[in-house]
Design goal:
Blueprint (H helix, E strand, L loop, with lengths): L1 H20 L1 H28 L8 H22 L5 H7 L2 H6 L4 H6 L6 H19 L5 H27 L1 H4 L3 H10 L12 H9 L7 H7 L5 H29 L6
Amino acid sequence: MKRNLKIYFILLYANLRVLVRFRADFILLILSGSLTQSLGVIFILTIFNRIPSIDGWNLQEILLIYSIVYVIEGLVSIFFDGLWSLTSVVNSGEFDRILLRPVSPMIQIATLGFGSQGIGNSIIGLVLLSYSMIHLDLLSTLNILLVIVFIILGVIIRVSINYCVATISFWTKNGNPLMIANYSLSEFSKYPMSIYSLPLQALIVVVPYAFISYVPTVILLQKEGSLIFLSMYPLIIAYSVYCMLRLFGIAIKRYESSGH
């Protein structure tokens, strides 16, 4: 484990060094990430200019959900952007080379890329997080520690979902449309679960988008159901990681080289 982590950070650092050589592109990607997320904030501000709340959630509470999503998506993009390359790696036969190396294939795939735009996402997320926590009077040592834990757990859940979706590339040979659909579905994690229909609520619990940011916000604000949600976390984390490892393990066993 320690060796794999060391190799992971070495490969990630190598990717970062390559990107930094093209300084203008690197900076532009960071700015584009910030701009994209800023547009999302402008959208929600525009909505709240028309209505006072969304199903009982005020602006600061919705921004808290948004901020946690932004930070988590930013970190996932920085540290696991290589998942977007899985389809091309499988189709080109390059996955053969990955299997021959004495390093976990999951680590190698995760480090095939470095999402510079994730830095911009995280910066906007942290600014929003600070703003919303101050205005909701949530700034305490306990809450800050809780937020850090929820962000780590959110990254684990998000990465697990992304791995499961990307792994389908082994069967379909074109997993990128599914990855895009996955990111579209994750938009549901930016709003209170109560505004969705029951089937949709069930979907974002089974594919646990709700536990990325909505549930942490419910717990931080001590809203109804927070203790039940808190007790579900160990099960959700175990379930997410199990699905990821199990599906990836099956995919590797059934992998057939393209022969290129």
